[in-house]
Amino acid sequence: MKDTPKFGISVLTALLPVILISIATILSFVLPAKSVIYQIVTFIGAPDVAMLISLIVAIFTMGIFRGLNIKEIGDAMSESVKQIAMMLLIIGGGGAFKQVLVDGGVSKYIGDLFGQTNLSPILVAWLIAALLRVSLGSSTVASITAASLVTSVVSNSSVSPVLVVLAIGAGSIFADHVNDAGFWMIKEYFGLTLKETFLSWTTLTSVISVSGLLSILLVSCFM
């Protein structure tokens, strides 16, 4: 236990990427856009650079400062990469598949389906977000796209925009499956089969999403 890094340095090493990116983001609103300091801060705060800096720091704090030699550090890093290599490939493949669907115009097609409808704006918002989520796999893309598509529907109705936003949020987590990186992370981290992941994680996200919709519809009756 004497060679184990102290708690403080361990936490600092783990959170260093977040700290660098956060500082760069905050300073970007304060510093002049054309200043040299701004360019340096933006460079250091870029996710790839922040991760690289954090890796170099970790080599020292978790390796060299503990008395490990370069070979031992290299072996530890190689073993770590082996454990996550397949997951990274799967996540990358899921992201590529999502981008194919986005570039193929799936979001526009789904928006056109609900362009002229008499359904409740809450239900429309949820359906659009849910369909985009299932089609594209990204909650962020589903939320942003759904918000832009239901703007005209909300502006012409008396429904509270807050409830529509909540409906979009509920729809954006519906039925997480193979085209989302999170699905594969759950599968790999817990050592589940595809069937088990569908029965547990996909079912869970579907129940949460539908429950959210029902709760929002219930609240809308009193607003």
UniProtKB/TrEMBL annotation:
Entry annotated with the keyword Transmembrane: yes
Q: What is this protein called?
A: High-affinity gluconate transporter
GO molecular-function term, one example from the UniProt record: gluconate transmembrane transporter activity
Q: What is the lineage of its organism?
A: Bacteria, Bacillati, Bacillota, Bacilli, Lactobacillales
Give the transmembrane ranges.
7-31, 37-63, 84-102, 122-147, 159-178, 198-222
| InterPro entries (UniProt xref) | Glcn_transporter
Q: What is the native source organism of this protein?
A: Leuconostoc suionicum
Q: Which UniProt keywords apply?
A: Cell membrane, Membrane, Transmembrane, Transmembrane helix, Transport
Q: Where in the cell is it found?
A: Cell membrane
Single GO cellular component term: plasma membrane
> What's the encoding gene here?
gntT_1
Decide whether keyword Methyltransferase is in the record: no
Q: Which family does it belong to?
A: Belongs to the GntP permease family.
Q: How does it sit in the membrane?
A: Multi-pass membrane protein
Q: Name one Pfam family in it.
A: GntP_permease
